[in-house]
Structure formats: structure tokens, C-alpha cells
Design goal:
Protein name: E3 ubiquitin-protein ligase HERC2
Largest sheet: 4 strands, mixed
InterPro entries: RCC1/BLIP-II, Ubiquitin-like_dom, Ubiquitin-like_domsf
Oligomer: single chain
CATH class of the largest domain: Mainly Beta
Number of helices: 3
Helix content: 10-25%
Number of strands: 16
Order of helices and strands: EEHEEEEEEEEHEEEHEEE
Strand content: 35-45%
CATH topology of the largest domain: Methylamine Dehydrogenase, Chain H
Structural class: mainly beta
Low-confidence stretches: 182-206
């Protein structure tokens, strides 16, 4: 049996979408995206709960007659040293400029769909898709290659420095990749970088208010 759900934009424009209770939230979001003809980043319940994309409507307690608020995906333009990447409102990404610095994204173009966020280092770009997966391109040593260990993680946020990326996982831990001189290393760093709520380049803020920083130490010479 199908259920009917109203999906509304903050502008007030809405559409009623018919879906099966065992469909995922992402399935519903994509249906609403096509109907409303605008890129949608997430769906939020009337009580302010952000629905998880991979969860089913049944598991998310979304019932027929419910009204969900849709957050429109915003366009985003970022740059590396000699290239640009543009996240369009439909979730696709286009890049141009020096190929070595990420201007050529043709090798991963098929993966650059349903993207919510992009970030850059000096020579690479990284994108988070709605399903929490990460796509990167550009100079491999500076973040252009996502390690398999990172690729298996669900990521909520990415920040970039000159030469590496840091991402907050869904469980609050942090993963990094790129130039090792600019990333945390060792078991002590792994223990400290847990339950992270927010990050800025080369530092994180934990849920208890503690701050952890890392990166290349300043030289005492000259």
C-alpha cells in the first residue's frame, strides 16, 4: 500500500508525493526533486528531525498525510591553486582550469551526482554525496585520491587545508587523507579525534568543548 506525503519548500511551494513505506528517504527526496524541479539536499520532519537518506519511510515513522520540509541545495563555487569547481543546484559538479590542480574531473564525472558539498586543497577537490560517500580528484598526493578506508566511511562534513582533507564521519570520528605532514597521525590522534561536533582546517571541536589541533609545526629556525 502506498502512502501520500507532502514535500514543501520554505517558500511554501509543495508537491504531494506517493511512495511505498519501504522506499528510502532518498527515494522520496529524488522523487520530490523531480516534481519540484529544484535540487534538494535533505528532508526534515515537522518536529525538526533531519531524516536519514538510507532509512526507509517506515523506519523513519513517516506516515501518510505527513508534511516534510525540503531544504534546497545551494550552488557552491570553490577554487584550488589554478582551477575551479562548481556545485550546481541539481547536485552535479563541473570543474575547469589546470588539470593537475583539479580542473579536469572527467575521470570521476559519473560519480559527481547528488553532491551536497565540495571543498578544496591547493591541488585537489573533494565532494560529499547525499549518501555520505566521498569523491575526490586532482593531485593525488594532496587529497585527489580517496583512500579505500575513507571511501568506506559515511561522511557528514569535509574541510580542506593547503595539502590535505579532514572529514567528520557519521559516528563523530575524523578521517584524513592527502599530504601526511599536514594530517594527524598515530594512536594518540585517533583517540583524541572522537565525538567531533565541528571542525575548521587543522582543528576540531569535541562535544565536551575540547579542541584538538594538528599540522606541520612552525620551524624554530630563521
Amino acid at each position: 500500500m502506498s502512502i501520500s506525503i507532502a514535500v514543501a519548500l520554505l517558500s511554501g511551494r509543495s508537491r504531494v508525493i506517493t511512495a511505498h513505506p519501504d522506499s528510502t528517504v532518498d527515494d522520496l527526496r529524488l522523487q520530490a526533486q523531480l516534481s519540484l524541479k529544484v535540487g534538494l539536499e535533505r528532508l526534515v520532519t515537522e518536529t525538526g528531525v533531519i531524516l536519514q537518506g538510507k532509512s526507509t519511510l517506515r523506519a523513519s515513522h513517516v506516515q501518510s498525510g505527513a508534511t516534510l520540509t525540503a531544504h534546497v541545495r545551494q550552488s557552491q563555487l570553490v577554487s584550488s591553486a589554478l582551477a575551479f569547481a562548481l556545485l550546481r543546484s541539481d547536485g552535479t559538479v563541473v570543474s575547469w582550469g589546470n588539470a593537475v590542480d583539479g580542473g579536469d574531473s572527467s575521470a570521476v564525472q559519473d560519480e559527481l551526482k547528488d553532491v551536497n558539498q565540495i571543498q578544496s586543497t591547493l591541488h585537489a577537490f573533494a565532494a560529499i554525496r547525499s549518501d555520505g560517500s566521498v569523491v575526490a580528484w586532482g593531485k593525488m598526493d594532496d587529497g585527489g585520491l580517496v583512500p579505500s578506508a575513507v571511501g568506506a566511511e559515511l561522511v557528514n562534513e569535509i574541510q580542506g587545508t593547503e595539502n590535505c582533507f579532514a572529514a567528520i564521519r557519521g559516528d563523530g570520528g575524523v578521517v584524513t587523507w592527502g599530504n601526511g605532514d599536514f594530517a594527524p597521525d598515530g594512536p594518540t590522534a585517533e583517540e583524541l579525534l572522537q565525538d567531533v561536533q565541528q571542525q575548521v582546517p587543522t582543528s576540531t571541536i569535541g562535544s565536551d568543548g575540547s579542541v584538538v589541533t594538528w599540522g606541520r609545526p612552525l620551524s624554530s629556525e630563521g
